[in-house]
Design goal:
The protein is about 30% helix and about 5% strand. It has about 70 residues and is mainly alpha-helical. A two-stranded parallel sheet has the order 1-2. The longest helix is centred in the middle third of the chain and has 11 residues, at about 35-45.
């Protein structure tokens, strides 16, 4: 599990061979000058699992329900 994954820029490809599951957490995966680095981050961790739009997160009355996708 990598918190602030958008700062995890030195990502050795063989790291994927060491772990069956990886999770990168970031509130701002596409921040900075390049959207390319955000796409590379998503690709490294296997895509996006959950997204909470800022409009919903600001509304504290919105109930939050999570479900895990099975592969």
């Amino acid at each position: 599990i990598v918190d602030e994954a958008h700062r995890f820029t030195n990502r050795p490809d063989d790291l994927k061979n060491d772990f069956q599951y990886m999770l990168g957490l970031s509130a701002t995966p596409f921040s900075g000058a390049s959207a390319k680095s955000g796409l590379e981050l998503m690709d490294f961790f296997g895509g996006q699992v959950f997204n909470l739009p800022i409009a919903l997160s600001a509304d504290k009355s919105t109930p939050l329900s999570l479900s895990m996708a099975s592969s």
